[in-house]
Amino acid sequence: MFKKKSRQSSSKNKPTVEDGKNHKDEKASKVHNESLFPISSKDYLEAIKKATNNPTDLVVKTISPNLTLTYIDSLVDGRTIKEQLLPDLLRKEYESPESLKSALSLPEVDLDEQLDHSVLSMYNGTALIHINGFSQVVMAKITTKESRSLTAPENESQVIGAQVGFNESLSTNESLIRRYIKNPELCNEKFIVGKQTNTTIALLYIKGIASEDMVNTLKDRITSLKLDALLDSSALAEMIDDNSLSPFPQMLLTERPDRFCEGLLNGKLGILVDGSSMALLCPYAFIEFFQSREDQNLRWPIASFFRLLRFGAIFLSTYLTPMYVAALTFHYEVIPQSLLVPLSESRALVPFPPIIEALLLELIIELLREAGARLPTKVGQTIGIVGGIVIGTAAVQAGITSNILIIIVALSALASFTTPSFMMGNVIRVIRFPLILLAGFWGFYGIMLGFCFILIHLIRQSSLGAPYTAPFYPPRFKDWRDSIIRLPLPFAYKRQSNARPQDADKYQPEPINPEKS
User: Fold this and answer.
1) Rounded to whole angstroms, how far apart are CA atoms 204 and 187?
2) What pLDDT, on the 0 to 100 scale, is given for residue 14?
3) Which of 48, 83, 147, 406 has the most C-beta neighbours closer than 10 Å?
4) Three-state DSSP state, 2
5) CA separation, residue 420 to residues 88, 372, 431 (Å)
6) How far is 129 from 110, CA to CA, in rounded Å?
7) What angle do CA 125, 260, 247 make, to 5 degrees?
8) Alpha-carbon gap, residue 473 to 231, rounded angstroms
9) Pick from 30-39, 139-148, 303-312: least confident
């Protein structure tokens, strides 16, 4: 009998499956209730102060016994609050959040009952209005209008064409794009990235032109990011491109709205980051980094000549100094006899081998360039010009380097500035140093080894799944027509297939005839 009683008592104390299920439901309900706004105004204020850690710029205004207004003072437009929001709130007493929402004259007004989401919106310039007795709040977005004024692009200047660039305001950049592309098919999707910064990212593309597979791929890469902070679009490009270890950029960084819109019209995808004045375009092929937006604004023979000149300058910038080192170290036979005598006289007092001489002079040029970029504009230009002349003259007179190498290094540095993309220009500057080392150790064989390594590396790369070396590998002969040279408009009516556009035709070539009657 005692055993039977103990069994009964133990069965009563043992938790059942239903008890565990009820316990989980109670816990979930508690968490859910904590994420909702309290009904009373007193509890609402305590919840807001706790969620925001009660900062000094948190403004709390009691409009009436049942109406409370809260916002972050440094993130909202005070004039809009004074002239629009407060008069609407003082007009009459409101019985529910729905009636208050319909009475406000502001353009962006919404209802929400989630505490975390509403507090996050406060840091994006939203004012919260709570009515006593309701768990919902009215969210009125009145973001401050402070931003840098629109100026001409500094890194992508052009003579013919638009003279306006992006700034750090996401809404301003979006309005610039809308002014160029007045099309309802222009899609704009927003994402929040960064646990600490909660940075807004805008993904833009034209529906019906952009590839849906690429759009979904880029969405997955953005939403899969788990990071604390995102402060610039260049950092985002390194996180979501195909190969983050490659020195070559796979996405274009641009500060020109017209170049950004041209990419969207060609089927590419664009990314804007709030707080960054540089936008991203992808997919982008290697050859496209050397094409300028101004090429489309010039007559086709002039644009083709400048484009060919640009490609030649990039080749000289990369290989001219390594060829000098290789010729003087291993291959004297390639130097013309008329040049050999003055070259030997110029190097007669130089105590260093050609590889050390070239590396030293290249490092001096890079130091002058870096110092000129970091100093104020007027001082930086003076330091760059005067420093180059003084150091170059003194180096020749001291016998540290030769006159011919100074000409070659200066020409290489000048040619590197012809690259329209700043990121690709930096790559050209960097890969010159390993090529000089290879030329100093193995001569022309070392240069060919470096060239083959770079070529294989480029062939292996991709941009958002598209071949990086298109249209040359894999060969797409139809796309060659507007790659190295800029063809006339009647022959360039097709979009590049690298972006896999759904609509391949930019326009019909029939109305644009070379000869019009």
Assistant:
1) 5
2) 44
3) 48
4) helix
5) 52, 19, 18
6) 11
7) 100
8) 35
9) 30-39
For the record, the structure tokens of 312 come out as 């030649």
Distance CA 189, CA 206 (A): 11
Question: Mind giving me the DSSP string for 424-444?
Answer: HHHHHHHHHHHHHHHHHHHTH
Task: Give the model's confidence band at 374: pLDDT under 50 very low, under 70 low, under 90 confident, else very high.
Answer: confident
Please name the residue ranges forming H helices in 35-160: 41-52, 78-80, 86-90, 97-103, 115-122
**Closest to 198 (Cα-Cα) out of 122, 98, 142, 262:** 122
Secondary structure of residue 411 in the 3-state scheme: helix
Closest alpha carbon to 157 in 26, 317, 293, 36: 293
With a pLDDT cut of 90, the percent of the chain lying above it is 44
Q: Using 50, 70 and 90 to split pLDDT, how confident is the model at 182?
A: very high
Average pLDDT across the chain, whole number = 85
Write the CB contacts of 247 (distance below 8 Å, at least 6 apart in sequence). Answer: 427, 430, 431
Closest C-alpha among 405, 413, 307 to residue 355: 405
* Distance of alpha carbon 6 from alpha carbon 14, whole angstroms: 12
Reply yes or no on whether the pLDDT at 438 is more than 50. Answer: yes
Q: Which residue in the block uniquely carries the two structure tokens 């005070």?
A: 78
- pLDDT score, position 95: 84
Whether pLDDT at 327 is above 50:
yes
The residues facing 59 across adjacent strands are 71
User: The pTM is what?
Assistant: 0.82
409 token code pair: 């290094």
Q: Which two tokens stand for residue 12?
A: 């009563």
Q: In sequence order, what are the beta bridge partners of 109?
A: 140
Q: How many CA atoms lie within 13 A of 442 on its CB side?
A: 9
DSSP string, 180-243: H---TTEEEEEEEE-TTT-EEEEEEEETTTS-HHHHHHHHHHHHT---S----HHHHHHHHSS-
Task: Tell me which of 3 and 144 has the higher pLDDT.
Answer: 144
Q: Return the amino acid letter for 144.
A: T
